[in-house]
Amino acid sequence: MEISLKNKVALITGASRGIGRAIALEMAKSGADIVLASRKMADLEKVAGEIKACGVKALPVAAHIGRMEDITALVSQAVKEFGRIDILVNDAATNPTMDSAIDVSERAWDSIMNLNLKGLFFLSQSVARVMKEHGGGVIINVSSIAGVTPDILPIYSVSKAGVNMATKVMAQQWAGFGIRANTLSPGQTKTQFSQALWGNPEIYKYIMARTPLKRIAEPEDMAHAAVFLASNEAGFITGQNLIVDGGMTI
């Protein structure tokens, strides 16, 4: 299947590395112009160069998705540059603690929920208002298998379970505007974000014992799935959670 995103504009958060970067590059290869968002402009500019090498346009915007003013500025810059937003990929996330549920602090809880869930929802709301004026669009929320079954990162799991339900709400309430919303839930993926897990020999052994396909995912595995969800080929799919985990949750 050759998927085309030509003449589409995709806004991708967490785009400076890992899964976000891989999705940005794959969507660029499929013909979409890309708005890249993360906190550090220097990192974004490197990815923007890779995007432009694919023959499409790239707009890097430094933004913290946990801050409402940054969300407003990000969407405003994207619309000013391209006039529309057709695809939103919410990949930005954080997990500043490895504490158990009995030990985790309120500060860590607030940090995780503010970015992983609150920021994701209000960015989606802001972009949905733009999509509504242009006949619709696609929202892809990057969750995790940790949102499906409790994980060793308990509050991160709670936040991702919230993302899964937020996606269903978006799909139900915004379908009338021509907006589809789906969740992409990666299993263990070889990124800097999750290196503390797969880089630990004991945890790696545990992951392999539970993964039928016997490997850690690459960011490109998630990127291919995201491009499909963004495409017309997935035009009747909404409110769903696509789990890409090598069979780990079974």
Task: Tell me roughly what share of residues is in helical segments.
Answer: 40-55%
N-to-C span = 27 Å
Mean of the pLDDT scores? Answer: 95
State the total count of DSSP E strands: 7
What are the segments in which pLDDT stays under 50 over at least 5 consecutive residues?
Answer: none
CATH topology: Rossmann fold
Describe this structure in words.
The protein is an alpha/beta fold. It has one domain (9-244): NAD(P)-binding Rossmann-like Domain (Rossmann fold, 3-Layer(aba) Sandwich), CATH 3.40.50. The protein is 46% helix and 15% strand. It has helices at residues 18-29, 41-52, 68-82, 106-133, 154-174, 195-198, 201-210, 219-230, and strands at residues 9-13, 33-38, 58-62, 87-90, 137-142, 179-186, 241-244. A seven-stranded parallel β-sheet has the order 3-2-1-4-5-6-7, sandwiched between helices. Helix 4 links the parallel strand 4 and strand 5. Helix 3 (68-82) packs parallel to helix 4. The longest helix has 28 residues, at 106-133.
List the helices and strands and how they pair.
Elements: E1 9-13, H1 18-29, E2 33-38, H2 41-52, E3 58-62, H3 68-82, E4 87-90, H4 106-133, E5 137-142, H5 154-174, E6 179-186, H6 195-198, H7 201-210, H8 219-230, E7 241-244
Parallel strand pairs: 1-2, 1-4, 2-3, 4-5, 5-6, 6-7
Helix pairs in contact: 1-2, 1-8, 3-4, 4-5
